[in-house]
Amino acid sequence: MVKIGNIELGEFPLLLAPMEDVSDPPFRFVCKQNGVDMMYTEFISSEGLIRDAAKSKAKLDIFEYERPIGIQIFGSNIESMREATEIATQANPDLIDINYGCPVKNVACRGAGASLLQDIDKMVKMTEAVVKATHLPVTVKTRLGWDDNTKNVVEVAERLQDVGIKALTIHGRTRSQMYKGHADWTLIREVKKNPRMSIPIFGNGDIDSPEKAMLWMKEYEVDGIMVGRAAIGYPWIFREIKHFYATGEKLAPPTMEERVESCRTHFEKSIEWKGTKTGIFEMRRHYANYFKGIENFKEYRMKLVQAGTTEEILDLFEEISKLNLILSI
Question: Is residue 102 annotated as part of the catalytic site, yes or no?
């Protein structure tokens, strides 16, 4: 049984990665339906929380059915992170997660996210401040290092555990790699096998099939796996990995009806949470992913993207569900 503090996550937990503009409540809902064991909010700016910025505050929205769920925060100022932790704790998540992994410029170049991999002492002080500011378990997501010359995650893991974190997720790339090339899990295994480490270690990066999830779980000996981009438009990845883990057999891919049903649910939750105008607009980025690999689907994708009312989109879903379209992959 893998545990983060007192949170029981099962024998081999699957986690949904926090992804900006993706892992909002509507998306989390369909992932929860498909068996994910733990989820996180989109990452939230500590400065935004302190300033009471509407966008940051909205990301604190969590729902009972989502548990266990973590709120992920990021920032470059230790005092701001401490204050943001207190605010996030009041939203009553199950844990607080610190983002030391985001590689994008407007985060890393402001001294937050993966940038802290260049200043381990500051990272440790910041983590300690967060741990002391909440009664909740604190976890961290990070990368192997800043670049190929500074792969310091073994030291990072030891020092963060020493100041009280309860679990660590490691993305198998450096910051300089961004999302290019292949994730290297060998250092993740080194962290896991380090006799000094006692907290759960989760691996992240390039898991896009049940076979790979099982192979890498055994080869790299992680406590669980965090899935990110592979779940976008394909929440079934979680049920497929779990079925393969339990039986050694692959599930059939989702039918057209299942694809439409999940996409419709995502759409309806989006409208419910964001309002009609924003909900319709923000769902447009998801349609191509839900129906990826479907032959001759471009015409319908364009119709979905161009539709401006809830009624039009629901009618299109109904029409699509009756089509005899097949997977081209």
Answer: yes
Check: CB of residue 205 under 8 Å from CB of residue 185.
yes
**CATH assignment of 256-321, given 3.20.20, 1.20.120, 3.30.1380, 1.10.1200?**
1.10.1200
Place of tokens 């309002």: 275
Active-site pick, 31, 102, 109, 263? 102
CATH 1.10.1200 domain extents, the chain: 256-321
For CA atoms 39, 45, 50, 53, give the dihedral sign.
negative
Backbone angles phi, psi at 205, to 5 degrees: 125, 115
Residue ranges matching CATH 3.20.20.70 in the chain: 3-247
pLDDT values of the chain reduced to their tens digit, one per residue, 329 residues: 999 999 999 999 999 999 988 999 999 999 999 999 999 999 999 999 999 888 899 999 999 999 999 999 999 999 999 999 999 999 999 999 999 987 776 665 567 777 888 899 999 999 999 999 999 999 999 999 888 888 999 999 999 999 999 999 999 998 877 888 888 999 999 999 999 999 999 999 999 999 999 999 999 999 999 999 999 999 999 999 999 999 999 999 998 899 999 999 999 999 999 999 999 999 999 999 999 988 888 899 999 999 999 999 999 999 988 876 654 44
CATH label, 3-247, candidates 3.40.50.720, 3.20.20.70, 3.40.190.10, 3.90.180.10: 3.20.20.70
Please, are residues 113 and 103 in contact by the beta-carbon 8 Å criterion?
Answer: yes
